[in-house]
Write a structure and sequence with these properties.
Strand content of chain A: 5-15%
Distance between the termini of chain A: 68 Å
Oligomer: homotetramer
Low-confidence stretches of chain A: none
Radius of gyration of chain A: 19 Å
Strand order of the largest sheet of chain A: 2-3
Number of helices of chain A: 6
Structural class of chain A: alpha+beta
CATH topology of chain A: Arc Repressor Mutant, subunit A
Shape of chain A: extended
CATH class of chain A: Mainly Alpha
Mean pLDDT of chain A: 90
Largest interface: A-B, 33 and 33 residues
Helix content of chain A: 55-70%
CATH superfamily of chain A: Winged helix-like DNA-binding domain superfamily/Winged helix DNA-binding domain
Largest sheet of chain A: 2 strands, antiparallel
Chain lengths: ~130, ~130, ~130, ~130
C-alpha cells in the first residue's frame, strides 16, 4: 500500500446524505436504483458537471446506459428531478439537472406527517 | 413549518459514504439495492443496533422482508458481509453484522488497479 | 501499512457538519475553540456518551481540562448549549448535554437574515 | 419559515471530516483555529476556489485578516499546508493550496502509533 494512494483517497472525501432523506426515500416512492441515481447526480452537480450524460451515470452504477435513460425519465415524471435551462450572457442555452423538487417533496412529506400526528392527538383528546 | 421539527432534523445529522466506495461499488459487483442495504446496515450498526432484522431493513427500503432476506444472503455469499459471534461474559451468544469484508475487498480492488497501472507503465517503457 | 489498520480507519467513518453551521458559526458569536467543542460534544452524544467530562473533551482537543470547563460554561452562558436532566424509571437522575439551543439560534439567525433581505427589497421598490 | 429557504439549506449539503483527523488533529500539534482554517481551505478547494485570500477565510471565521495571514504562515511552517504552483498551457502561473502534507502527517502518526503498540506487545512478551 503506497502512502500516495492513501493520500489520494483521503483527498476524495465523502458523500453526505441527510438522514432525513436516507430514512424516507422509500416513503417518497423511490426504489434504491432511483435514489442512488439522484445521489450520483448530486455528486456530479457538486463537482461542477451539472448535466451528466446517461453514459456518465452508467459508468458509476450497475445499470446500462439505456436503463439510465429510462430511470432519468421516471425521476422527472415522478416529480423529484427537473431540468433547468440556463440562459447565460452568450446566446448559448445550457441545461442542468436540479434536485430542488426532491427536497420540496421531502419537506412536504414531513410536514404532512407532523400534521397527521397533531390531528391524531387532537382527536384523541376530544374522545 | 415548526422550528422544533427543523431542530429535530438538524439533530438527525447525515450519513457519510467515502467517495471511494460510492464510485466503486459497481466494480465490486454490487447493484444499487445491495449497496444501499450495506449502507442501511452501517447506519444501524453505528446507532448500536448491530443485528437488525430483515423486517427492520425492509421498513427503511423499497423491498419486501422476503427480498431483504435474499439480499442479505447474497451479500454474505459475495463476501462483502459477515456475521460475527459475540461471546460476552454471560453465557449469552449474540450476533452482529460486520462490513469489514466490504472494506477489505475495496482496498484489494484499488491496490490491484494501481498495480495494473504500474505494470502497464513498465510495459510501455520497455517498448 | 497494514490492511487491518486501513479497515479500522474506514469503519470509523466521518463527522458531518451542515455547511449552514460551518459557514455561520462566527455570525453566532462563536470562535473556533467554542465551535469545535460543540462538534466534539455532538460526536460524544452520537456515540452514546451524552455527558462527557472536561477531561474527555480535553483529550481530543488542544486545550487543558481547566480551559475546557471554562469554555463549557461560556457556551451555556451564550445560550448555545444546555444540560438536560433525565429522569429514568429508577431514582437515578442523569444529565446530558443538548445542542438544541445551537440549532435554534442558527435557524433564528437565518430567518432574520432573510427577513432583512425582504425588507431591503421592499424599501428599494418603494424608492 | 419559507420552504424555498429550507430547500436552499438542503442543497448546501455538509462538510465531512474523517473521524481519524477529527480525533487526532491535536496529536499533530494543531490547535482549533489552525484545524478549522484547514477545514475552511478544504471547502474552498472543493468548490473550485483553490487559492482563497486571508480576507475570504476571515469572512467565514472569527479571526481577523491579519491573524488569518499569520495562521496560514504557521500552517505552512508546521508542514501541514503547502502552496503548489500550477503551470497551465498559457504563460500564466497560478497557485493553489494543498492539504496533501496534512494527510501524509496523519498517516505517519498512525503508522508510528501502531508500530509502538506492536513494539510494546513484543517487549511485554519478552518479559
Amino acid at each position: 500500500m503506497k502512502k500516495d494512494d492513501m493520500i489520494a483517497w483521503f483527498e476524495q472525501g465523502s458523500v453526505s446524505i441527510p438522514k432525513l432523506l436516507f430514512n424516507h426515500y422509500s416513503d417518497l416512492g423511490l426504489d434504491e436504483t432511483e435514489f442512488m441515481m439522484l445521489m450520483h447526480l448530486n455528486v456530479f452537480i457538486d463537482s461542477g458537471e451539472s448535466f451528466p450524460t446517461p453514459h456518465d451515470l452508467s459508468a458509476k452504477m450497475s445499470v446500462s446506459t439505456t436503463k439510465c435513460m429510462e430511470v432519468l425519465r421516471n425521476l422527472i415524471q415522478k416529480g423529484v428531478l427537473t431540468i433547468e435551462q440556463l440562459d447565460d450572457s452568450s446566446s448559448v442555452i445550457s441545461e442542468q439537472y436540479s434536485l430542488k423538487p426532491l427536497w420540496r417533496k421531502l419537506i412536504n412529506l414531513l410536514m404532512q406527517e407532523n400534521q397527521n400526528e397533531v390531528q391524531q392527538e387532537q382527536e384523541q383528546e376530544e374522545i
